[in-house]
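User: For my dataset I need records formatted as: sequence, then structure tokens, nothing else. Please produce one.
Assistant:
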Amino acid sequence: MLKSSITILYAITILVAVLLVGCVSDDQADFPNNSQINITSNAAVVSLLKNLVSETDALSEDQQCFKFNYPIVLGYNNDSNISIESYAGLLSTIAAQSSNFNITGVQFPIEITFRNTSARIRIENEQELLSLLTECGYTSLRDEFERLFRQCFTFDFPVTVLDSIKREVPITTDQEFDTFFNGQNKNYQPEFKFPLNLLVGSDAVSEQIQTYFDFYEVVDACPGCPSIRIDSSRVSNTMYRFIADFEIKPEYELFWIVDQETFPFVEGENAITRGFDFGLHKVCIKATSPDCLSGIEECKDITVCPELFFIAEQEGVTTTYTFAADFPEIQDVPYKWLVNGEFQENDGGPGADNMFTFQFEPGSNNEVCILSEITGCAEISKFCVQIEVPQ
């Protein structure tokens, strides 16, 4: 009696699976007889299939970065499997997924062939599958997680994550997760123990996700942070104008940050004009929105340097010349004199005479320069004069 019940239950499972992927024709995909193959869930295959689907409106199989050498066997979240016989079958199977019935893994090894090649590449494990994502320029789970975590969603603690060697790590606070995540290597892909609860959106609605397919459903529903751009133009030597060069929507909250000092945007204005002291400065725009809760920043570094100048005067018919520096803010700008690239003396700033005298060799050709000593201005703020001394 028990054996009969198990048989009936197994038959019902397969029937439901077939109905859910009913749009897949018999010659494109098939539930194999060994449909109880144990296929381990992994995020890499879900990410890979997600990238393939995002391209299908424009690309045929031959235009994709690679193609599978069929058949391949995919695993579902109900522990059933399906054998995929063609690209069309793969697309149909991907499209037929739902929260209750979705792909969670692939049976390794698989073989692929890169576009415009004939070599069959064997992929043995999840790490090699992640390398394929990188090779093709596809986004990984980590890419999406880092883009949207604390922007569109965060954890509804407690949660359990797996580290790079598959050990379960319970996490109860943001600080614990940051310590954990920063302690993993750069190739680490977030791996969760399901079910996992997320707080989604500006209202922090708790949603339970059972698989990586569910995670991507959250990702797809979230636009993420806006694309912002800052442009600048110089008004005068020390004055700059900065423009928010993007569409500003009503739901955005925007701030200017000038050398770490924050200013709110003035309604109806998308630009500011600021004067600066000489040196290095950073100007940023920060934007937050319901889909970008922690905000995003775009910055521009500027270097404000003095415009140096001096005049040269020969003393009679001698080979001695006197040089007099003369430019705005001269009492605030330290600089140095150089002859033919060699340092001679410091000058400029409070109390300096801004004069320099030098005796040249008869018949020589020389370069005299003043060079600003302000941080960041050494190569920008420089003024030179050629001195040809007669015999």
